[in-house]
Amino acid sequence: MTPEDETEDQFSEVFDDLHSVAHETEATTLGELVDALGRRGTGPLLVILSAVLILPVGMVPGMPGLVAIVFVLIGIQLLFVQPKLWMPARLRRITIKTETLKSIVDRARPLRRKARLLLSERLTFIIDSRAFQLANALILLLTGCVIFFIGFVPGLPFVLSIHILLIGLGLTARDGVVMSLGLTAIAPAIWLVAKVLF
């Protein structure tokens, strides 16, 4: 199996997990969703969460704030090298409608096919570097806090999710090049936030 095939399989498995969760009940909890994706690592979870903010479902009131909180929790997990993502029980009990999950799966599924062309396992020392892990943690913490407090600004959650998407893709495929792009892509987000605040 080629690295490209392995990458496509990774994303296929992620979407299969989402599909299963979406069709088990009329609604699922945030905790169930995070558990289903989190067992495959931080990368797939970041891909789906950032996709939520990029897709129209991200405009649902309260959705950016909810995603922002999970970003912060993942940042804490990476910062302290915790094996499993911890979430408060109250947050885990938040329900998500099946229609919302199905919309995410249907709209994000084309990403799986494009990933095969764009991603490959390369420069993996970047992925394994503790310095880059700390950088990812800080970026997630800052991005989550910004989205939570001023995510109501039209278009801001979309812009702030692009670098998270790239980081998630890089982690999932162990692609150091895409990971580096994600770290540098935060620059436009910083400029936009500064423009909004000042």
Automatic annotation (TrEMBL):
Superkingdom field: Bacteria
Transmembrane segments: 66-87, 138-171, 177-197
UniProtKB keywords: Membrane, Transmembrane, Transmembrane helix
Xref: PANTHER family: EXOPOLYSACCHARIDE SYNTHESIS PROTEIN
Protein name per its UniProtKB record: Exopolysaccharide synthesis, ExoD
Organism: Actibacterium pelagium
Lineage of the organism: Bacteria, Pseudomonadati, Pseudomonadota, Alphaproteobacteria, Rhodobacterales
